[in-house]
Amino acid sequence: MISQDKAEQFIIREYSNHLGEATIISAKEIDNEYLIEWENKNDKYRATSMVSADREIIIIEAEIG
């Protein structure tokens, strides 16, 4: 099992880049996985990603612009 804090750290690390840092908008636990909404304002990328118990990150929905 993964904690919400760890799941958020994975998202921030995965989606931050030279243009800016990803920030967490919301996080919700669903069946030992986390549905995390995040954005990187500097590169105009926003998405909802699922972080599984085994730390796999899957983008559920994304928008650029």
How is this structure best described in words?
The protein has 65 residues and is an alpha+beta fold. It has one domain (4-64): Nuclear Transport Factor 2, Chain: A (Roll), CATH 3.10.450. Helix content is 18%, strand content 48%. It has one helix spanning 4-15; strands spanning 23-30, 33-40, 45-51, 57-64. A 4-stranded antiparallel beta sheet has the order 1-2-3-4, with helices on one face. Strand 3 (45-51) and strand 4 form a beta hairpin. The mean pLDDT is 96.
Which helices and strands appear, and what pairs or packs with what?
Layout: H1 4-15, E1 23-30, E2 33-40, E3 45-51, E4 57-64
Antiparallel strand pairs: 1-2, 2-3, 3-4
